[in-house]
Amino acid sequence: MLIPFSTIIGQQWAINFLTSSFNKDKLGHAYLLKGPSGVGKKMVAHAFAALINCAHPQDIEVCGHCPSCKKFASGNHPDLLVIEPEGAGIKIKQIRALQQQLTFPPFEAKSRLVLLADIHETMRRPEVANALLKTLEEPPKHTLLILSGNESGTILPTILSRCQIIPLIPLPLAEVSRMLMNDDAELAEKQAMTYAAISEGSLGRARTLQKKNLLPLRRTIIEQLTILPEDCTETVQQVFPMAAEAAALKENLDDFLNLLTTWLRDVLVLRSGAGSHPISHDLGDLLEQGSRCWSQHALQNKLHSLDQARRQLARHCNRTLVLEVLFFALLAEKC
Asked: How far separated are the first and last CA of the chain, in Å rounded?
């Protein structure tokens, strides 16, 4: 893919550093783009790789018309090697295949570009990390390696020391919200701000959450948990269908429980009078109502119940039964 730097949001420092090195003809042999998941590390890597081999670069942008740019755009450039995790991480066979390819000079470009994604996953396998380290220690001529990894992952100090580290930062929440609303014109601003806040400035993560569309169900269930009395026939009749609907989320259930956790923490902060801005922008009225319904002690108990439900689900307990117990626990201890 061909990505102009002008389309990348919120990473101006990293872009300025890389393009300055390019314009001064002072490129290193290896760069590590390090930052949170979903903030544009792979986009920056692809944009930089395309710029390096563009025949007619215009300041810091690719021309988009030369043979190299056209091959980047089609994904068929012979001197662009992209190594991504297979399953849980990059495999030793992938690194060995790369090393074999690097014994030959570039096919047609002045530089061969190697993009290694998510290398923090690679560190779980010492043999893979050591093989990658050997390539970084003895880089072939006319080859530039661009690695990317999450800041929360563990990367060997020996690998860090052989790369120029380029930090990427979380995006401004307002910018993430704006991009989400550009993606979906029907998305309400408060929902977009909630996705942006929960994702902590990761546009990729926010888009993933938006596609799962869990906020409407969360609001419906929280409304019921807030207004239903603790012990009556109507409550029992309401809780069982809610638990069944939530259990049907299956692989999205963990994200849904995280949203409930965020709601409770927002209510707890509001109840304590800490004055912090809530994450759940879409639940303003329900946060106020929840802070009147439950004491701080009750809210802490509910957070404990959520943690217990997660542990039970991790042990493959019946989802519907776990959620029934959880929802009754979330109803309890009203003031």
From this structure: 57
